[in-house]
């Protein structure tokens, strides 16, 4: 089964995403801030990372920009989760190197569908 990283600083949302994806059988690591997420991305091989846009210590955009500069991590699938759903923000995320964007709030079904789509 796929190995995922969830990087989300909001505890309730982090647990919702974790519980939803664990029920689908995914192997999951979690990070509570941007620096922890970046360290885990350097130390582990993930099939997909779900990044919150606004996190303490390092934003999702900063993480994407750093990860995309590492050749062995360049193909990593990245799904950005954000309440910043305006078109300009979405484009900024995609331009930085995210593969997809999911607007908060989202339903568990939307999350599962997007993750499955990205892992195919």
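^ structure tokens above, recovered residues below v
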């Amino acid at each position: 089964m796929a190995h995922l990283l969830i990087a989300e600083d909001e505890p309730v949302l982090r647990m919702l995403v974790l519980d939803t994806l664990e029920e689908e059988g995914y192997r999951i690591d979690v990070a509570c801030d941007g620096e922890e997420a970046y360290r885990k991305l350097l130390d582990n091989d993930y099939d997909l990372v779900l990044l919150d846009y606004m996190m303490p210590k390092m934003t999702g955009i900063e993480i994407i920009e750093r990860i995309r500069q590492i050749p062995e991590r360049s193909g990593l699938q990245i799904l950005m989760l954000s309440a910043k759903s305006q078109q300009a923000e979405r484009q900024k995320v995609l331009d930085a190197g995210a593969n997809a964007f999911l607007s908060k709030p989202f339903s568990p079904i939307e999350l599962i569908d997007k993750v499955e789509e990205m892992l195919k």
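Helices lie at 11-23, 34-43, 60-67, 87-96, 108-119.
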